[in-house]
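Section 5: illustrative case.
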């Protein structure tokens, strides 16, 4: 039997006070929040697996549990048979993550930031420069901008550099957390093409959290929909659409399915705050 890339067994995460007291003091009066509630899923190797959900649904927490940034309160998450709690260091060497808020040395250039990152992974400097140049070209980043400080770059440009940084390490599992937020349509297409190439050429498993329905449908082999911390649906994009009755011979859209299951429209956190 082939070991799955990611295996979540009824994983749960609670935020807030627990029952009882802490150092003789009563806990905060706020009730604990069950952010992820016994969520199960299995992701085969080289699959692009989407995670959708309304804001506050627990999808971000779920991604952080897989990334070893949070510890589950019950259940477990494994990556190629390695437990993210007891074997966290081994898992961290095999994964990388691109979040919506990427951190850089703002005074350094794109190339300097990328060189610093890959040297931490033990990559040879001369080889790293070749791969950095090729990848930045593939992402549509012009040569004249590559030596300018990151603080002069737009948010969209910084996000593309963050994706390049993650791809350079050739992760076995790539966690994409709203990776194309802030990008123009052309940049989105370029990033999505690189994601497909990464899966095809290196067999990388990809977990994608996005608020973009078209992106999810275009990229994902299967999609999990999370609401209230629970897994409410898991299927291929077509399978999800076929779960609702067709109208005049046409399948409902993925957004129709999302609305039916959650009662909410999928928006980014930025849109909600605006």
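Designed sequence:
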């Amino acid at each position: 039997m082939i070991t799955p890339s990611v295996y979540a067994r009824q994983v749960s995460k609670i935020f807030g006070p627990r029952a009882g007291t802490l150092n003789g003091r009563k806990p905060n009066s706020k009730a604990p929040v069950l952010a992820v509630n016994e969520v199960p899923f299995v992701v085969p190797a080289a699959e692009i697996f989407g995670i959708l959900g309304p804001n506050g649904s627990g999808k971000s927490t779920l991604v952080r549990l897989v990334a070893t940034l949070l510890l589950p309160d019950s259940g477990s998450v494994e990556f190629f048979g390695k437990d993210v709690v007891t074997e966290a260091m081994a898992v961290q060497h095999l994964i990388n993550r691109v979040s919506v808020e990427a951190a850089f040395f703002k005074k350094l250039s794109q190339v300097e930031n990328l060189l610093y990152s890959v040297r931490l992974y033990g990559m040879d400097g001369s080889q790293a420069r070749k791969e950095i140049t090729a990848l930045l070209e593939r992402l549509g980043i012009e040569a004249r901008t590559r030596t300018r400080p990151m603080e002069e770059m737009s948010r969209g440009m910084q996000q593309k550099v963050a994706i390049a940084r993650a791809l350079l390490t050739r992760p076995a599992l790539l966690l994409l957390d709203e990776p194309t937020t802030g990008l123009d349509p052309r940049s989105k297409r370029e990033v999505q093409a690189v994601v497909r190439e990464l899966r095809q050429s290196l067999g990388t498993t990809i977990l994608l959290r996005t608020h973009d329905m078209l992106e999810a449908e275009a990229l994902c082999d299967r999609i999990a929909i999370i609401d209230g911390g629970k897994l409410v649906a898991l299927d291929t994009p077509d399978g999800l659409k076929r779960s609702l009755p067709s109208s005049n011979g046409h399948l409902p859209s993925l957004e129709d399915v999302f609305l039916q299951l959650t009662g909410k429209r999928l928006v980014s956190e930025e849109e909600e705050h605006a």
